[in-house]
Write a structure and sequence with these properties.
Blueprint: H1 2-29, H2 31-125
Helix pairs in contact: 1-2
Organism: Hibiscus syriacus
GO biological process, one term: positive regulation of DNA-templated transcription
Subcellular location: Nucleus
Protein backbone atom coordinates (compact mmCIF):
# COMPACT_ATOMS: atom_id res chain seq x y z
CA UNK A 1 0.00 0.00 0.00
CA UNK A 2 2.82 2.38 0.84
CA UNK A 3 4.38 1.65 -2.57
CA UNK A 4 1.17 2.60 -4.38
CA UNK A 5 1.01 5.87 -2.47
CA UNK A 6 4.61 6.68 -3.40
CA UNK A 7 3.87 6.06 -7.12
CA UNK A 8 0.85 8.32 -7.03
CA UNK A 9 2.88 11.09 -5.38
CA UNK A 10 5.57 10.77 -8.10
CA UNK A 11 2.96 10.92 -10.85
CA UNK A 12 1.32 13.94 -9.26
CA UNK A 13 4.71 15.63 -8.91
CA UNK A 14 5.54 14.92 -12.54
CA UNK A 15 2.19 16.26 -13.61
CA UNK A 16 2.75 19.45 -11.53
CA UNK A 17 6.17 20.03 -13.14
CA UNK A 18 4.75 19.54 -16.65
CA UNK A 19 1.82 21.83 -15.87
CA UNK A 20 4.08 24.57 -14.51
CA UNK A 21 6.34 24.29 -17.54
CA UNK A 22 3.36 24.47 -19.85
CA UNK A 23 1.97 27.50 -17.97
CA UNK A 24 5.31 29.30 -18.16
CA UNK A 25 5.65 28.68 -21.88
CA UNK A 26 2.04 29.66 -22.57
CA UNK A 27 2.32 32.87 -20.51
CA UNK A 28 5.42 33.88 -22.50
CA UNK A 29 3.47 33.62 -25.69
CA UNK A 30 0.32 35.30 -24.38
CA UNK A 31 0.90 39.02 -23.58
CA UNK A 32 -2.05 39.07 -21.14
CA UNK A 33 -0.26 36.67 -18.80
CA UNK A 34 3.10 38.38 -19.22
CA UNK A 35 1.81 41.48 -17.39
CA UNK A 36 0.34 39.34 -14.63
CA UNK A 37 3.61 37.45 -14.14
CA UNK A 38 5.58 40.70 -14.16
CA UNK A 39 3.27 42.21 -11.55
CA UNK A 40 3.57 39.07 -9.39
CA UNK A 41 7.36 39.19 -9.68
CA UNK A 42 7.45 42.90 -8.77
CA UNK A 43 5.07 42.35 -5.86
CA UNK A 44 7.18 39.44 -4.63
CA UNK A 45 10.36 41.57 -4.80
CA UNK A 46 8.58 44.45 -3.07
CA UNK A 47 7.36 42.11 -0.32
CA UNK A 48 10.86 40.72 0.17
CA UNK A 49 12.32 44.22 0.44
CA UNK A 50 9.56 45.26 2.85
CA UNK A 51 10.21 42.17 4.98
CA UNK A 52 13.95 42.93 4.99
CA UNK A 53 13.30 46.53 6.10
CA UNK A 54 10.96 45.26 8.79
CA UNK A 55 13.61 42.83 10.08
CA UNK A 56 16.22 45.63 10.14
CA UNK A 57 13.79 47.93 11.97
CA UNK A 58 12.98 45.24 14.55
CA UNK A 59 16.68 44.52 15.05
CA UNK A 60 17.36 48.22 15.66
CA UNK A 61 14.45 48.43 18.10
CA UNK A 62 15.79 45.41 19.95
CA UNK A 63 19.28 46.93 20.13
CA UNK A 64 17.82 50.21 21.40
CA UNK A 65 15.86 48.37 24.08
CA UNK A 66 18.93 46.40 25.14
CA UNK A 67 20.94 49.64 25.38
CA UNK A 68 18.17 51.35 27.34
CA UNK A 69 17.93 48.36 29.68
CA UNK A 70 21.67 48.47 30.27
CA UNK A 71 21.59 52.21 31.02
CA UNK A 72 18.63 51.80 33.39
CA UNK A 73 20.35 48.95 35.22
CA UNK A 74 23.46 51.10 35.60
CA UNK A 75 21.37 54.01 36.94
CA UNK A 76 19.53 51.63 39.25
CA UNK A 77 22.84 50.39 40.63
CA UNK A 78 24.04 53.95 41.26
CA UNK A 79 20.79 54.85 42.99
CA UNK A 80 20.97 51.72 45.15
CA UNK A 81 24.51 52.64 46.14
CA UNK A 82 23.42 56.19 47.06
CA UNK A 83 20.51 54.80 49.08
CA UNK A 84 22.87 52.48 50.95
CA UNK A 85 25.24 55.37 51.73
CA UNK A 86 22.35 57.59 52.89
CA UNK A 87 20.99 54.75 55.04
CA UNK A 88 24.43 54.25 56.58
CA UNK A 89 24.68 57.99 57.34
CA UNK A 90 21.20 57.94 58.86
CA UNK A 91 22.17 55.05 61.14
CA UNK A 92 25.34 56.90 62.19
CA UNK A 93 23.36 60.09 62.94
CA UNK A 94 20.72 58.15 64.83
CA UNK A 95 23.43 56.52 66.95
CA UNK A 96 25.06 59.90 67.60
CA UNK A 97 21.68 61.35 68.59
CA UNK A 98 21.09 58.46 70.98
CA UNK A 99 24.46 59.12 72.61
CA UNK A 100 23.65 62.84 72.92
CA UNK A 101 20.23 62.07 74.42
CA UNK A 102 21.82 59.75 76.98
CA UNK A 103 24.41 62.43 77.83
CA UNK A 104 21.64 65.04 78.20
CA UNK A 105 19.76 62.77 80.62
CA UNK A 106 22.94 62.10 82.58
CA UNK A 107 23.83 65.81 82.77
CA UNK A 108 20.28 66.67 83.84
CA UNK A 109 20.53 64.14 86.66
CA UNK A 110 23.88 65.60 87.73
CA UNK A 111 22.39 69.09 87.72
CA UNK A 112 19.46 67.91 89.84
CA UNK A 113 21.92 66.31 92.22
CA UNK A 114 23.92 69.53 92.45
CA UNK A 115 20.72 71.53 92.97
CA UNK A 116 19.75 69.24 95.84
CA UNK A 117 23.20 69.85 97.37
CA UNK A 118 22.62 73.62 96.97
CA UNK A 119 19.25 73.26 98.74
CA UNK A 120 20.97 71.50 101.63
CA UNK A 121 23.69 74.18 101.77
CA UNK A 122 20.99 76.87 101.75
CA UNK A 123 19.14 75.22 104.64
CA UNK A 124 22.27 74.60 106.71
CA UNK A 125 23.98 77.98 106.11
CA UNK A 126 20.89 80.13 106.01
CA UNK A 127 22.08 82.00 102.96
CA UNK A 128 19.73 82.39 100.04
CA UNK A 129 21.14 80.66 96.99
CA UNK A 130 19.70 81.30 93.54
CA UNK A 131 18.85 77.81 92.23
CA UNK A 132 17.59 77.84 88.62
CA UNK A 133 14.79 75.61 87.47
CA UNK A 134 15.97 72.62 85.47
CA UNK A 135 14.32 72.43 82.06
CA UNK A 136 13.70 69.03 80.52
CA UNK A 137 15.24 69.35 77.04
CA UNK A 138 13.91 65.98 75.97
CA UNK A 139 10.31 66.88 76.69
CA UNK A 140 10.25 70.50 75.46
CA UNK A 141 13.29 71.19 73.26
CA UNK A 142 11.77 74.46 71.98
CA UNK A 143 11.61 75.96 75.52
CA UNK A 144 15.29 75.77 76.41
CA UNK A 145 16.62 78.72 78.48
CA UNK A 146 19.53 79.34 76.07
CA UNK A 147 19.10 80.21 72.41
CA UNK A 148 19.56 77.40 69.96
CA UNK A 149 22.11 78.10 67.31
CA UNK A 150 21.07 76.95 63.84
CA UNK A 151 22.87 74.03 62.34
CA UNK A 152 24.03 74.82 58.84
CA UNK A 153 24.00 72.05 56.28
CA UNK A 154 26.18 72.10 53.21
CA UNK A 155 25.61 70.56 49.84
CA UNK A 156 28.77 68.48 50.31
CA UNK A 157 27.06 66.52 53.07
CA UNK A 158 24.55 65.06 50.61
CA UNK A 159 26.77 64.28 47.65
CA UNK A 160 27.88 60.72 47.24
Amino acid sequence: MNLILMRRIRILHSFSVVFLYWQASSSDSDPRYANVDERKRKRMLSNRESARRSRVRKQKQLEDLVNETSALQKDNGLLSEKINIATQRYIEMENANNVLRAQAVELTERLRSLNSVLHIVEEVSGFAVDIPEIPDPLMKPCHLPCPIQPIMASVDMFEC
